[in-house]
Design goal:
The protein is an alpha+beta fold and 410 residues long. The chain is 29% helix and 22% strand. The chain has 3 helices and 17 strands. The model is unreliable at 164-170, 270-278 and 320-324 (pLDDT under 50).
């Protein structure tokens, strides 16, 4: 029986559209599988190459260090043997004179005419160092556990999502176009009318989307404008992704009111408009800044700002109540007036002062087992410090005596 009504015709068109969409989805899915395999192959090759290079560098560094230590062993040995040889000559001389005196006594000669008496020889002999006191080479090495732990933490594999515009075949290097990235909550492919929000619009082909919730699925899509003022191209198919990293947040403090799931701290004091006592320091909820990550502090509202107020990274959380600990050992402190202190020592480079609307970004990378490279960026100025730290993950702290400061973590 054929289709004879408008309703049946509409159903047929809908099914045909659905069929086309499903076929297109399967095509895109096959392309994604090829891209996943290609990315995996490239990543494996890069990993092999990187590890081979690291192994070669480590081997060369070990050989160099071994040669240096062997030279130090030889230096200690030669110095000790020279001291032993000198002592041996003196002991031989004292032995010879002692034997001469002993021979004189046995032959009945008088010792008074001898230039050196037995007492004098005994006195000189007593000044010779004990053989056990001569230096000997010894080796001190760090525990293999610490070295192996650093090796086991070398590198990190990340799961990344690439959002590509299927309807845009233009070369990104051509023209002066822009990109628009949007996201929505959940899987847009399973929603009837997903609500998208614009996360970025501009010329860059990559961007960092902030303020995403941990373990929550988001959908992303992108469109391209080939030339300024021109029409925007079609949207790419939505791609889903999620972050497994918890967002930065403040720990509760009686001197600050906390809002926005812990992201915003306002210096009020016990939730009121005045605060006259207690600790003016607030800490992050933990050692949340990891190597390779960035933490941006947005100054939403600001006071006048003093040199003893500001933000700090901490190599371990100090005891509460010690405001001065933020400008001491184990702390990298940026004052509200722009001074930078590393382990209590003021550095020459200054940053712009903290004020409403400004941002201070902390980014870190681990240089070796004992050194963290910290990059501070605010406005158009950037400074970098190599900081000796015991911990790889760092705390954030803020100290403001004046009421009204409002800080947001991103």
């Amino acid at each position: 029986m054929g289709l004879s009504t408008g309703e049946d015709s509409s159903k047929q068109e809908g099914l045909e559209d659905l069929k086309s969409n499903l076929e297109m989805y399967l095509d895109h899915l096959n392309e994604a599988k090829v891209q996943i395999q290609s990315s995996a192959d490239q990543t494996e090759a890069a990993l092999e190459s990187a590890m081979a290079a690291v192994l070669q560098q480590v081997s060369a560094a070990l050989d160099e260090r071994k040669a240096q230590l062997m030279k130090e062993v030889a230096d200690v040995k030669n110095t000790a043997l020279k001291q032993a040889e000198s002592c041996s000559r003196l002991a031989q001389e004292h032995l010879q004179r002692t034997e001469e005196l002993l021979g004189s006594l046995q032959s009945g000669d008088s010792l008074e005419a001898k230039q050196m008496t037995a007492e004098a020889i005994e006195e000189l002999a007593s000044q010779l160092p004990a053989p056990s006191s001569l230096p000997r080479p010894a080796l001190q090495l760090p525990s293999s556990g610490a070295v192996l732990a650093a090796v086991r933490q070398l590198g990190r594999v990340e799961s990344t999502v690439t959002v590509a515009g299927y309807e845009d075949d233009c070369d990104p290097s051509e023209g002066d176009g822009s990109y628009r990235l949007q996201y929505c909550y959940g899987d847009a492919n399973k929603q009837t009318s997903p609500v998208f929000h614009t996360a970025y619009e501009g010329p860059e082909t990559s961007t960092l989307v902030r303020r995403l919730q941990c373990d929550v699925i988001y959908s992303f899509r992108v469109s391209r404008q080939v030339s300024a003022g021109g029409a925007w191209g079609g949207w790419s198919p939505p791609v889903t992704g999620a972050t497994t990293l918890p967002h930065y947040e403040w720990s509760p403090s009686p001197a600050y009111s906390i809002t926005d799931s812990g992201r915003i701290a306002c210096r009020t004091g016990d939730g009121g408009d005045t605060y006259t006592g207690g600790d003016s320091v607030i800490y992050s909820a933990g050692a949340q800044l990891r190597p390779g990550a960035a933490l941006r502090v947005a100054v939403v509202e600001a006071g006048s700002g003093c040199s003893d107020e500001g933000l700090a990274l901490l190599d371990g959380r100090p005891d509460q109540g010690e405001d001065g600990a933020l400008i001491g050992k184990g702390a990298l402190f940026v004052s509200a007036t722009g001074e930078v202190y590393v382990n209590g020592r003021r550095r020459q480079m200054r940053l712009p002062p903290l004020q409403a609307g400004s941002y201070l970004t902390f980014s870190t990378e681990r240089r070796d087992q004992q050194t963290t490279r910290v990059c501070l960026e605010t406005g158009d100025k950037q400074v970098v410090y190599d900081w000796k730290t015991e911990s790889t993950d760092l705390w954030l702290a803020a100290s403001f005596n004046e009421l009204g400061w409002k800080l947001m973590l991103e």
